[in-house]
Design brief:
Elements (H helix, E strand, L loop, with lengths): L2 E2 L1 H14 L2 H10 L3 E3 H8 L3 H13 L3 E6 L2 E6 L3 H14 L20 E2 L2
Antiparallel strand pairs: 1-5, 2-4, 3-4
């Protein structure tokens, strides 16, 4: 039997912790596969500037978001736009009647092979 790679599990847990805040998910959703200024993020999320800036710092520090200065403005974009696709997959899982199904009833494990290390 394969053992769980503890380092991978911890990294994934940190990622989910960052993504567990609904305001961060709003910001990520507005960013999508584009780049946005703070003003655009404020308009897109409906959050106040202080909250947007606070969460952008967390997303930047985690390495999820890159910045680029263009004149007086700083633009933000996802480092890996595939994150939007991943969130879309989670959204489908949550809202397609899957949330009440028991994972122990024979559904295949959604874990990627890299999640496990050989014993």
């Amino acid at each position: 039997m394969d053992q769980v790679d503890i380092n991978s599990v911890e990294q994934i847990a940190r990622l989910f912790k960052i993504l567990s805040d609904p305001n961060r998910l709003r910001i990520i959703s507005v960013l999508g596969k584009n780049e946005c200024s703070v003003s655009e993020l404020i308009n897109g999320t409906g959050l106040p500037q202080t909250l947007v800036s606070f969460h952008l710092k967390t997303l930047r520090d985690s390495g999820m978001v890159d910045t680029e200065r263009k004149g007086p403005f700083i633009y933000y974009r996802l480092k890996s736009p595939v994150l939007i696709d991943l969130l879309g997959a989670f959204n489908q899982y949550t809202f397609n009647g899957q949330k009440n199904k028991d994972m122990a009833t024979g559904m295949p494990c959604p874990c990627s092979p890299w999640f496990f290390k050989k014993s």
